[in-house]
């Protein structure tokens, strides 16, 4: 019997929250307890493969659709945050993929017409389809609107021809369709205008994908997507022509919240692993968790986790209360959750020492995966710029 066979993380703590979300959390935990084991998580991370069967189980449990109706409002932000935290604490790569799925769900609820919701949203709700979101490009991340080189040219028959390259597109290898942003006008007054969203089936001729080798989130392929004269009918325009980037900006509040939720889950999973280890691993005849230095580090990390949780709850409640709420809460929550994740995984590696390096135990995976949320969906530095301007009222810094 090896040490990893004997070791189990500390059980998740009870979280004080409204009954509706406590019940949802219990549902998610029960589903994950039934289908997910440490061995399964390690298998897909080592194989660098997506756990598609788990995605199907998530959808079968109603966790993609949640409380959204096909032709009505989408799922609430508080409900999404519960699901994503639980996924972040275990099958993190699947949690990251669900951030993308929820973004597609939100865009289709907000801007899809009846036919598009039937064709693209219904199978997404049911887990019969997965989508990827094609925004970033090789020359543009935060400033992608200004740097966007992907073009959509209108043809004589009214359809569009898309050509260009997208980069860092999660899950594009096996997605059923992609939401692609492309420039449709060269004469827009602002860089963020003149860009349109297109619903593009992955099987459309002219699409080629290549996997990017990454250090973290290895269970979800990050891809280069090459578009070579990809023909898309005008019926597949999502939202308004030339207003696609502005429409995406309207969803960024939700994406920040969802990124914060997964980062919070990573922090919590790492904390549970570290506490389990600190209680069981002995040195000098007593548990390593009895040493004051380690206790203080774990306590400091725990404070960051609970602070991020409260900010996330505040932000999600504000977002669910309706448009026009203070969206800086989501930026504050994302920044706090990113800090909690990187701090806790670093502390966890120190608590486990050499065993933290061991790929048969999960701490090294949490450590790698946490780094995603220092730059996604927006870098921590740009998030601070946003908070400085919008929350503190300081002059714009960029």
UniProtKB/TrEMBL annotation:
Keywords: FAD, Flavoprotein, Oxidoreductase. Residues 242-390 form the Acyl-CoA dehydrogenase/oxidase C-terminal domain. Pfam families: Acyl-CoA_dh_1, Acyl-CoA_dh_M, Acyl-CoA_dh_N. Residues 20-127 form the Acyl-CoA dehydrogenase/oxidase N-terminal domain. Gene3D superfamilies: Acyl-CoA dehydrogenase/oxidase, N-terminal domain, Butyryl-CoA Dehydrogenase, subunit A, domain 2, Butyryl-CoA Dehydrogenase, subunit A, domain 3. Residues 132-230 form the Acyl-CoA oxidase/dehydrogenase middle domain. Its cofactor is FAD. Belongs to the acyl-CoA dehydrogenase family. This is Alkylation response protein AidB-like acyl-CoA dehydrogenase. It comes from Arthrobacter ginsengisoli. The lineage of its organism: Bacteria, Bacillati, Actinomycetota, Actinomycetes, Micrococcales.
